[in-house]
Amino acid sequence: MSLPALVEPGPELTPEQVTRYARHLLLPTVGREGQRRLLGARVAVVGAGGLGSPALMYLAAAGVGRLTIIDDDAVDATNLQRQVIHDAMSVGLSKVESAVDRVGGLNADCDVRGREVHLDPDNAVDVLRDHDIVLDGSDNFETRYAVDAACHELGVPLVWAAVYRTAAHLTTFWTAAPGGQGVGLRDLFPRPPAPGSVPACGDSGVMGALVGQVGSMMAGEAIKLITGAGCPLLGRVLYIDSLTTTQREIPLAASDRYLGAQPPASADLPTCATVSADQLAADLQGGSPPFVLDVREAAERDFGVIPGSVHLPLAVLTDGDPDELRIPRDRPTVLVCKTGPRAYLAAGALQAQGYQRLSVLDGGMTAWAEQIDPSLPRY
């Protein structure tokens, strides 16, 4: 479905701008007027990570007049495999600082602004106000739903994507779209999943080149919306499988979930006692050590294990019969994942089977590496 151009044309192009954007001016779908619309556009990008990196660089190169970069994280060495807006010298800096510096050097026509803030339901509307379009490259459902709700309230389109390992979803949400055919995140996912039930890239891995591809496509969606070119992905979710190099569309229809509805709440994690890394290390040296169950993925154990732990991935635990998996009922069991959420989900599955002597390693393997075995690599 084609849509009218989102942004009015800005001032006439200077001779220097005609040269710089010549390849856009040659496109019948963009042309001089479309380029003036890009120069007048105000775009907010949530997340300066894997998806935000290519999106920001291509939007700046395209001549978007104002870019706001929103992130509250710092650059980590593990980011460099895919977050190409940052380099090795940026490790330890805030992602906003690093990204603003990089984007600012790409195009003097682009007014780059940074906001080091964590978006939530209380501040998202104020942060995203006065933008024509928002791109969401965040990696958690809390932020995604806060951004979606804010865009719904502000009536602006939201270009959205999510990547898992070697596959991705990409679409455009716009509940106020002309013609009454608007859809939003809640039409695709009515309720957020329980924390930890959808592994983040830090738990499951991600193909760096894929986020580059998808982030670039997000920039393309924004350019189409701003200029009125082509048919944006409104009402269509694009599924991308990088391993088979295939794409397919999933139709998405509007519902009544935005008619006076409150923001959906995610399911709570099961409750369970916790044990510190120091206490667990001491207990393992005692006469009656606990049974330590590692519920991470197999590849994660290459980064280190707790000596004597038994491996059982969360998916196997939740789908199988715990009695057949030979988890003892007569010993305390400590559940371990990378940082904690998956261990709580495992505890809930075992509690449903009548297990009682359960605890979760507080902080997971991250805490174990920091407090007990600093030789283990971070991931």
What is the assigned CATH homologous superfamily of the largest domain? NAD(P)-binding Rossmann-like Domain
What would the principal axes of the Cα set say about the shape?
elongated
Query: How many distinct domains?
Result: 2
Span from first to last CA? 42 Å
| Structural class determined from secondary elements | alpha/beta
* Mean pLDDT over the full residue set: 93
Question: Would you tell me which CATH topology of the largest domain applies?
Answer: Rossmann fold
Explain this structure:
This protein folds into two domains: 15-251, 3-Layer(aba) Sandwich (Rossmann fold), CATH 3.40.50; 273-371, Oxidized Rhodanese, domain 1. By secondary structure, it is an alpha/beta fold. It is 32% helix and 16% strand. The protein is elongated. The mean pLDDT is 93. It has an eight-stranded mixed β-sheet, with helices on both faces. The longest helix has 20 residues, at 208-227. The chain has 14 helices and 13 strands.
Question: Can I get a quick summary?
Answer:
The chain is α/β, with parallel strands linked by helices and 379 residues long.
Map the helices and strands.
Layout: H1 15-20, H2 22-25, H3 31-39, E1 42-46, H4 52-62, E2 66-70, H5 95-104, E3 111-115, H6 124-128, E4 133-136, H7 141-154, E5 158-164, E6 167-173, H8 185-188, H9 201-204, H10 208-227, E7 236-241, E8 246-251, E9 273-275, H11 277-284, E10 291-294, E11 310-311, H12 314-319, E12 333-336, H13 341-352, E13 358-361, H14 364-371
Parallel strand pairs: 1-2, 1-4, 2-3, 4-5, 9-13, 10-11, 10-12, 12-13
Antiparallel strand pairs: 5-6, 6-7, 7-8
